[in-house]
Each structure stands twice: as structure tokens, then as C-alpha cells.
Design brief:
Blueprint lengths: L1 H18 L2 E12 L1 H23 L7 H26 L7 E8 L3 E6 L8 E7 L8 E16 L5 E12 L1 H27 L1
Antiparallel strand pairs: 1-2, 1-4, 2-3, 3-6, 4-5, 5-6
């Protein structure tokens, strides 16, 4: 019974975090992908989660919690470095066709200012760059769920569009890191507001 209560509390916390959204200003590189490519890449995300679990389960019972947590972080970092290295060596970083500004983010998706207007249902292969303190960058697969009409034209007469993107494939540890970033951002805003009111 106690386990059920704890699990329920965890689920409630997850739901609360799921909808917390922070205003931000981050860079994202992205490209539309076909449904077939989306399915293939989504399977890769599932495979990487399974391999991480297998690697961490090898140490079950032999290491204390702190050591195991550090070891899992190292394994994830190594996987991310391998992915970044292969992208750089293969020149695949140039595969991202567009660069946009992330204006808000949650554990479930983001708001993107885009130079291209993409249809609802379009799948995106994305790379999101966070401040240096975070385990950068984060790779996700997204789906365009909302789009606003043209929001502005700049001095060069270039159009910009606001898109609502849902994360449809993301490493859960990356999602947790995004949630930590949101909480840190919100705490910083509260501190700044408090200092402003004290002056």
C-alpha cells in the first residue's frame, strides 16, 4: 500500500512538472523529416534507453547509490560525446536546415520562432543548445502541434513564424535535465523580482 501511495505521489509530481513552462531564449537547429525517418529514429531512441538500462543493471547490488548515479551520468555523457563526434566527423551537423529561437520550453515541448512555416504534423529532428552548465546539447524528435500565422517581418523583410513543438522522442534523462533548467530559470526570475522590489 505504501508503495502505491509513493508511486501515486511520483505520478502527481510528474504531471505537475509536465505542464510547467518557462520563458527562455535558446538556439535550436532542426530539419523536417519524413514519417519513415521519424519511425527509424524513434526506434534508435528506444534502443539507446534499453542499452543504458542494461549497462546500469550490470552494477545492481554491487555499488552504492551515489557511485551508481555518477557511473550512469558518465555512460550518458559518453554516449552524447560519441553522438556529437560522429555528427562533426560525418558533417551531419550541416544536415540541420534551419536555425530558430526557442522562446519557451517545458518537459513536453517548446515554442519555436522559425524562419519557415511548417505544417501541423511535421516531424522534426532537433538539436537544442542550452547554457554551458547543462549537459549540452539535447537531441529530440519533435512534432509541430501548433502554428501561428506570420508574426513579424524584420528589416530584411524576412518572415518569422511561431510554432508549438511536442517532444515525441527524447531521452528521459534529458527531459529531467530540461525540467531542472526550468526550475532554475524560474527561481532566478523570482530572486530578481524580489531584489527589484526591495530597491
Amino acid at each position: 500500500m505504501a508503495d502505491e501511495v509513493l508511486n501515486l505521489k511520483d505520478e502527481v509530481k510528474k504531471e505537475q512538472r509536465k505542464y510547467l513552462r518557462a520563458e527562455t531564449s535558446l538556439i535550436a537547429k532542426y530539419s523536417p523529416i519524413s514519417q519513415e525517418e521519424f519511425k527509424r529514429k524513434k526506434n534508435l531512441y528506444a534502443a539507446s534507453r534499453a542499452s543504458s538500462y542494461v549497462e546500469s543493471s550490470l552494477y545492481e547490488g554491487t555499488l552504492d547509490h551515489c557511485t551508481k548515479t555518477v557511473l550512469e551520468a558518465i555512460v550518458r555523457l559518453e554516449q552524447k560525446i560519441d553522438r556529437l563526434s560522429s555528427l562533426l566527423i560525418s558533417g551531419e551537423f550541416h544536415k540541420y536546415k534551419h536555425t530558430g529561437e526557442v522562446v519557451n520550453i517545458s518537459g513536453g515541448g517548446l515554442g519555436l520562432i522559425s524562419p519557415v512555416n511548417l505544417r501541423k504534423g511535421t516531424y522534426l529532428d532537433m538539436c537544442i543548445f542550452f547554457p554551458p552548465a547543462f549537459n549540452n546539447p539535447f537531441f529530440v524528435l519533435g512534432e509541430v502541434r501548433k502554428r501561428k500565422a506570420l508574426i513579424e517581418k524584420n528589416s530584411k523583410n524576412n518572415a518569422r513564424y511561431q510554432l508549438g513543438i511536442k517532444f515525441v522522442a527524447i531521452d528521459e534523462k534529458d527531459r529531467e535535465a530540461i525540467i531542472r533548467y526550468i526550475f532554475r530559470t524560474e527561481r532566478q526570475k523570482l530572486r530578481e523580482a524580489r531584489l527589484e522590489n526591495e530597491q
